[in-house]
Amino acid sequence: MRFPAEHPLTIVKLDPVGRVVARYPGTIHPAAPGWIAIVADWQLGTVEVGPLRFEPGDRLIEYFSFVEPINAFALFAPDGTFKGWYANVACPAYLEERTLFWRDLYIDIIGAPDGQITVLDEEELEESQLSQRDPEGYACILAARDRLLTALRTRAYPFHLYG
Question: Spelled out in words, what is the top-level CATH class assigned to the domain 8-154?
Fold first, then answer.
């Protein structure tokens, strides 16, 4: 399904077991083949995650892969200043009608403008006991984390766009 730029969509975030945890509006932004990019405004209060601070009025350009198990959000202050990357290990995104769904898979990674990289939530993955329940799924999550770290360090798409 292809949509023109500026086309409105609803974005739905699912937790690792598939429950809806967030739903918000966005508009389509140009992206590379195999990806969809969405512009969305931060609608929650102030949230600090590692070295990154999300605040009311911030704008995100969110890059979702339809192939790779990752996504990445470029965060900007209201004045346009780039604040950093927030990336997720996730199932590949999918579209249904005018809704984009993505399923978060525990591990998050922050890329600061100064190049510092912070990996978050590895303990949450361990606490899930996925390594015992689904060793193959667990290994896939770790492999996706490693690919995401490499993409950040080498500034592969979409990380070469900002920062």
Answer: mainly beta
pLDDT in tens, 94-117: 999 899 999 999 999 999 999 999
Query: Phi and psi (nearest 5°) for 33?
Result: -55, 140
Task: Tell me the domain boundaries of the chain.
Answer: 8-154
pTM of the entire predicted model: 0.92
**pLDDT, tens digit (0-9, with 9 covering 90-100), for 122-136:** 999 999 999 999 999
HEC string of the chain equals: CCCCCCCEEEEEEECCCCCEEEEEEEEEECCCCCEEEEEEECCCCCEEECCEEECCCCEEEEEEECCCCEEEEEEECCCCCEEEEEEEEECCCEEECCEEEEEEEEEEEEECCCCCEEEECHHHHHHCCHHHHCHHHHHHHHHHHHHHHHHHHHCCCCCCCCC
**pLDDT digit string, tens, across residues 8-59:** 999 999 999 999 999 999 999 999 999 999 999 998 899 999 899 999 999 9
Q: Which residues pair with 88 in a beta bridge?
A: 71, 108
- For the record, the structure tokens of 160 come out as 């070469």
The one-letter amino acid code at 47 reads: V
**pLDDT at residue 7, as a whole number:** 87
User: What is d(CA 138, CA 53) in angstroms, rounded to the nearest whole number?
Assistant: 29
